[in-house]
Amino acid sequence: MWFQQARYAIYDAEDFRDKLLTNAFGSSKVRTNITNTIETNKYSTKRKIKNKMENTGRAIHPYKETIEEELLKITNALKDIAAQKDNLGLKNKSELTSYREGRVSSCLASEISTFDNRSMDKDLIIGRLSSREGSDDALRVIPIVGMGGIGKTTLASMVFNESKNLPDFKLKGWVHVSDEFDATRVIKSLLEFMTGQKSAVDNNFALLQRELRDKLQGNRFLIVLDDFWSSGLEDWDVLKECFSAGDVGSRVIVTTRIWEVARTVTTSRGLSHELEKLSRDESWKYFEANAEKDSMNNSTLRDIGMQVVSRCDGLPFAIKIIGRLLRSKGDDVSEWRRILKNEIWRNEKVIPSLRLSYYHLPEGVKNCFAYCSIFRKHYTFSIEEMIMLWVGEGLMDKFCNGNPPEDEARTYFAHLHSACFFQESSDGGSEFVMHSLIHDLASSVASGLCLDLHNVNVQSRRLSYIQGKDEHLLKNTSVTKLHHLRTFLPLRENYFVFQGRFYFESKLFGELLSNFKLLRVLTLKGYRISKLPKSVGGMKLLRYLDLSNTYIVHLPHNLCGLYNLRILLLSDCWNLRRLPSKICNLVNMRHLYIDGTNLEEMPDGIGKMTNIQTLSNYVLGRGKSKQMREFKELLNLQGKLHISGLNNVKDANDVVIAGFKQKEILEELVLEWEATSEQDEQVLDAIEAHKNLKSLTIKGYGGKRLSDWILGASPSFTDLTSLGLTGCYYLGSLPSLGNLPFLKNLKVEGLNSLESFGEEFYGDSHTPFQALEELHIDGMDALKTWCFPGGGRVVFKMLKDLQIQSCRQLTKIPYCFPSLTRLLIESCDNLIKLEMRGEAEEGSSSITAYRHPFQSVRIIRCPMLEEIPNSFTNSDSFEIELCEKLVTIPRLQHVRKLTLKDCYGVPLPVQACRDEVMEELTIKTSLSDIHRAKIHRFTSLKSMELIIPRICSEDGELMTQLPPNLSDFTIRCNTSLHVNTEILTELRNHNCLTKLGFYECGALESFPDAELPSTLKSLTLAHCSPIISIPDRFLSGCSKSLKELWIDNCPNLACLAPSLLTLESLQRLDIQKCCSIRQLPSTTTSGPNYLKNLSYLRISDCRALECLPVGFHKATTLHTLHIEHCPSLCVTKDGIPTTLIHLHITQCGKMKPFIQKVLPTLTSLTLLHLQGFPDIISLDHCLPDSIQSLTVREFPNLKSISGLLPNLKHLTRLEVDDRHLVDKTKWSKKLNPLSWLSILQA
């Protein structure tokens, strides 16, 4: 209690100091001097303050005391705190003083390889995954049980990563469950992990559950549920229902601390694996791997180390943390002994070794670590995100010692990473995460600072919540009393990419922000806001403002009075056209991100912002040539600088004065002209960037040459790693780019005057382009020749990725790329051959060196190409399309994925392909070629698409033998193809086929009277115009397995097969452009039918359809219904299931009675889209109040919907195409002030 009171009092004092300095001086230029004066002569300063400012009015603090009164109050509070400290007998810990004052080394040790002490556990779990024995083979759940920090997640991660060697799992997923079980979040996270993209379904549990079930359906999967706490059977059943849809052999690993959880989830006795603590020997070995192993040669250190390890109680994570701590102390025996004897070991709430490691952090690092408690458990973050937040809250100010705060913060981050407080995220990206025990530690040391929205403490300083999920918690009136708040931080959910999709009701938005006068960090990223409340201009202490990905149109002028603002993020604010004219007053600005905006020009005076480091985009407006001179003062620019509008420079001397040669820490420069001018060459000459530049991109340049400073007679850019030349239409030649020794990426695009790559391109280097890894050549309309250098020089020896596109006059491409793994050649109309050069020439003794494995070879739309070299024989993926004159293709013995289209002169290369390697095949060829290919011999083939071209005049039948393990089969043809009984019989006996598609079968009037296979899950019939009917037996064979049925553009199909009724597993039915269908099969019995499990139905452009099937209202699992362009369709009162969640109705004129009478009864509806009803004049009393998202379009006679909006209590999104439909003055006061509503005008 005393500690929290002391911390709050110190924060109040800091707030008072910062307010005083900001109000008194308007700028922190004099902040340092004033602060020093306060610290060195407190009494004198107090007297000056009283004399100068007692009549300046009230301070901005909400309690409205005068400055003198507030200062007295704070002073008394600090005195009371100091007195209590003495009364409690509290003393400073002298033994830790040296550590708190110590500076972090800027050169930290790299990650230490860890001791693999769980190999036996890993092998045991993998054995249980692989075993196909037992009654639970359909779905096996393997719990890993153990206390926190014992290594459950690490073991699961080892198994998960090694499972790539187990080819049986088609899908893999990982999700952290946590102690607060949230089925919606868990399911959504699993979907996004598996697909790599955000789920199209929002947070609707039923839809997400259905989507996951559909995703897993019929697929063998491996899923890890990490940190599962709930032992409630109902929670597990929610997930198990989805998992049960998978194929036999699916596996789930559950990590948990609780045996009751393991007993709930396991599918068989004896599967639970209890993870034991490390033995004494294992603990010691693991400690040695993390501490300095050489130190163990010192008997004293070894003895201390063994005592420390014994106190870690066999917990790997604790051993790792304490090992890293001792490693940082070197061989200092006294330091090791202090750690051993510290009283922290008696603490039982947090693992003592963790807390001890925290206490030995330098003071500044401690503060930054405590700040991390603002994140939720298992929240992933980037280095830059963390650094900006630390700098934004001012945590670095006391510890910079003259260094840039960003550099010090980066050092702090590296220190926390090396000490294992931060770990790389398991997704393999560039983000980091805190272990749950480390998060517990952060929450403990930051107790009372981060707000709990369920139990508001008005003294809290930091507020965070999950964006798009927790906004409703802000309705607590106590939140508006958070006058002391320093950070307001909405957090994204993991795997989420901001799309500007969140809503903030303007009244509550304004009320909240008007009370947060002491904010240092404010993030509104991703909200649909078009303007800021005026109250933001009153946040005089604000340092960090993130408005990126919002709809902001303009920034208020009072923003320019926020003199403390250091970081302003406006990325992807597409509606932003101008910055405030006085933004240059923000002289403390360090980072201004304006990429992705549509700024027309920059305001004058940017040169005053001398502290700025990041200026992501600078737009030079018309008539603003002299603005370039302002760059002269911006000596701290670093990272990336993009300057656009260089065509507006009228005097090259303005650029010379800018002094880009002095910007030695600038790493990436993008120069862009929006139109050509006579000054282009002089302007580029004048830029002359510093030789430390790493990346240079030039766009739209109108000169005929590049400047000497880029690559003259004596190249200065020896550090350049990336060079891009785009749209430089008049550039007729290139300098000797081959001389750049470290160039890794080269992109040359749209140089329409460049006719050749010759000797001058390579320069005089013995090994031109010796480091180049990626070369992209695109849109070179004049390029005719490409020659390699003479003299036996080795060129492009490191090139891995080569892309050549739209070089329409190029006839030959020299080929001598010994390290190439990816090749794309596209739209080179006159390309005849790839000419093997040097050691790659045919007959060369070194030819085998160029037959290395390729990841991908793609050659598309090269109609004159005649042959492809044998060098590509080891390709993993090989794709050739629209190469009509091609006569030879290499023997592709190792190809896994082969695509061959519109190459009629080439014999199918599949004869040379190995039976057990190829998995995917797409070919467009004649029936006779297909028969000769004997495709049935490919035992590993999973997916096959056959395209029979229109020019093929032969009649024929498909082969009657298919590859034995084929699961996905598609046929596209425009010939008189006979799909006879034999082929369907072959399909019927094919027990692996799950997906089948017939496309563009222009001569196919009907399918034979035979059954489809019983394993089929998805069937598509598309663009089969002649088809009149579908035989009854056709669908009966897959009645229990078919999940998806797509019928598209079959205009002569008059009715669906009666066997549709028997498709009891059908979940999705999509019927489009079937103009002759009048009705769908009706269900009259309570037995299995196609409506029983249907979740999604779309009927579009079925103009003859008159009614929905009888019994349709019993389709209680249906959650989404689309009815579009069905002008004859009528729906009765009992025709729609009341459980419907999403409903789209477009251009269905006869459904007006449905909207007026039936729609109000659909009380589960959350999304409604209505479009194209010219006869409706009112929607009053037509809409259920459950709607959250409403779209109303093409209602020309509808007068208004303002009157019905107050009844839609859950509405968050409204889209209309007529702004007159919504009159805010009539309904805004009637709305619940906590509604989160966004109105869009289509």
TrEMBL record:
GO terms for biological process: defense response. InterPro entries: Apaf_helical (IPR042197), Leu-rich_rpt_typical-subtyp (IPR003591), LRR_dom_sf (IPR032675), LRR_R13L1-DRL21 (IPR056789), NB-ARC (IPR002182), P-loop_NTPase (IPR027417), WH-like_DNA-bd_sf (IPR036388), WHD_DRP (IPR058922). Residues 374-442 form the Disease resistance protein winged helix domain. Keywords: Leucine-rich repeat, Plant defense, Repeat. Residues 122-293 form the NB-ARC domain. GO terms for molecular function: ADP binding. Residues 629-750 form the R13L1/DRL21-like LRR repeat region domain. PANTHER family: NB-ARC DOMAIN-CONTAINING PROTEIN, PLANT BROAD-SPECTRUM MILDEW RESISTANCE PROTEIN RPW8. This is NB-ARC domain-containing protein. It comes from Kalanchoe fedtschenkoi (Lavender scallops).
